[in-house]
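Complex record, two chains
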Amino acid sequence: MRLTNQSKQRLPWDTIIRWCMRFIAYSVVVAVGYILFDIVVKGVGSISWEFLTDYPRKGGTEGGILPAIMGTVYLTAGAIIVALPLGMASAIYLSEYASQGRFTRMIRLAIVTLAGVPSIVFGLFGLGLFVLFFNFGTSILAGSLTLAFMILPTIIVSSEEALRAVPRALREGSLALGATRWQTISRNVLPYALPGMFTGSILGIGRAAGETAPILLTVAAFYLPILPSSVFDQVMALPYHLYILATQHPDTTKVLPLQYGTALVLLVLVTAFNLVAIMLRMRFRKKYKW
Amino acid sequence: MVTNLPTKIETRDLNVYYDTTQALFGIDMVIPKNQVTALIGPSGCGKSTFLRSLNRMNDIILNARTEGTIRIDDQDIYASGVDLADLRRRVGMVFQKSNPFPKSLYENVVYGPKIHGVRDRQTLDELVEKSLQGAGLWEEVKDRLEKSAMELSGGQQQRLCIARALAVEPEILLMDEPASALDPKSTARIEDLIGELRENYTIVIVTHNMQQAARVSDYTAFFYEGHLIEFGETQTLFTKPGNQQTEDYITGRFG
């Protein structure tokens, strides 16, 4: 057999294209790396025990950001409590029970639409429904519910994917032993799908923790140096606090280090969420394979 | 009537449709008790559909529709009000591709009994030993019941699935090409096992392998394009087929 020599013209083209693709892919990493680097370097100086555990003083120019940290924690926790059961139940219904008719298509369309709604619209929706109509006022309750609705599509879609990843043969095996549908789901589908459901959900929740627009109109306080005492109280929140410091504060240059500090805390919080998700996924991927 | 033996399953004018496609056409068949009945025929001939209609597993397939009657011990299993869980407990099933649950061996076997309300630990322990022995797996795994079922070999997994089916003490065992994904040695083990199980169970087995049908079964049914072409004693059907299509198939002229 005689192989033709590689064309002298094709080789450089191939190399050029490969390098172009590589450059584009790497530039994503560079962009993320730069943002992280910038925030860490400029923010780490502001981080102190006082910054994390103290109340803000003098209009936010001094002191810490404890109320904003706790506010974000409360809001996120509230969103989880509401959205996780709702989203998981919806996913179980769609994946295990619903017949694939027109009504199911309508539900799916609604979910996709919900996922595409801009976050400020969720904010307005929350203002209209929870703050005004249900008369919750600007409160943790209204803010959490708004965030919950915003992350609902993420939770439903990722939960449904996790359920679909469980092989059909396991369902059939269970049914063939005389198990009812719910017995099959609860004993032989959900246990294997739960890690995946949680992982997807946590990623969605991490996004909620960093959102500003939905809480802007429903809960966030401009400056409230106390901790809330009930779900009907307003709170400060990290992303909103950051927005305030950066654009609304009378002396934005003076509080620049505090902005970076706040950004760093928010970043660490969200990253921690995502790390938990990744670790969960790795642990359970080893445990269940078929 | 092909036999004077007691009847276990009787189908009358059984028609099954998927959407608008008819998969089975007016199947009349009498399956004798405590015998091994093999279903043979080319792919898509309806033998698996027939098998799955016997424990109503076709019910879970969207747009599948069943007409006619199937009687097990003179009870119409498609009558309204039939308890599906009870039916499927009495009619066990082993699938083509072994489907052990990603749990321990022990949990796999007690899955069915627990579903049906057995809670007593000692009873469960006894069931595990008895079922694994029945499936010829006990000696190999008795020291590692807490290990994951996914660590077993393919042949062991399939025998575990048989043990799991036996654990709910069924009367009938349906087997859908149980050895088609196994190596010859594991296949031989499964075939031996079928020979032992026939004493206590009525077995209906789908197989692509004609030698296997000849080896393990007492009766054989030949399906073709959704019709039951011929049904009779295995020895007769393979040596003196009464139908030209059957003869063509078993001599390898088509299919």
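Note: Chain A is about 75% helix and 0% strand.
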